Task: inverse folding
């Protein structure tokens, strides 16, 4: 029997493979495939980091940001500075998960995300991710462009 998601009808209508914004929360769907699991059908712990990375990338894309364009144009990108992960319950083969992402801080160089990997109403994993904006050429932090900051600031919770 399919797992019931606790989403509003608006979330269901707007939910796409690339995710959607619901107020200040980005909602990103993930199906668990065999390649995500061990022989027992339990999701590898490292895959939660991938799920969260995909959700953050789609969040930025949804906001109109094209990370590859910025990287190619001026050699600047967001990179993960730190991650705190709290594994609560395992996901399993064929589960339909939702990664819920919120921005809790936006400064000149740093953006902090709070992310939850959910199975319906059940919390499986909490993540806090601090991303910094850097110059690839210089290998050091630089202020993020105003267009990025202007897109991100209204969504800080």
Result:
């Amino acid at each position: 029997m399919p797992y019931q998601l606790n989403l509003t009808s608006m979330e269901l209508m707007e939910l796409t493979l690339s995710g959607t914004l619901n107020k200040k929360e980005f909602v990103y769907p993930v199906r668990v495939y065999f390649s995500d699991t061990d022989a027992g059908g339990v999701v590898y712990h490292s895959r939660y980091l991938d799920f969260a990375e995909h959700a953050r990338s789609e969040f930025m894309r949804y906001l109109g940001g094209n990370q590859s364009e910025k990287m190619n144009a001026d050699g600047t990108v967001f990179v993960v500075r730190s991650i705190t992960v709290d594994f609560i319950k395992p996901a399993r083969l064929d589960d339909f998960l939702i990664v819920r992402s919120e921005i809790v801080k936006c400064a000149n160089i740093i953006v902090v995300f709070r992310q939850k990997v959910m199975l319906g109403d059940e919390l499986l994993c909490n993540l806090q991710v601090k991303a910094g904006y850097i110059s690839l050429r210089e290998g050091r932090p630089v202020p993020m462009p105003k267009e990025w900051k202007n897109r991100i600031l209204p969504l800080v919770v």
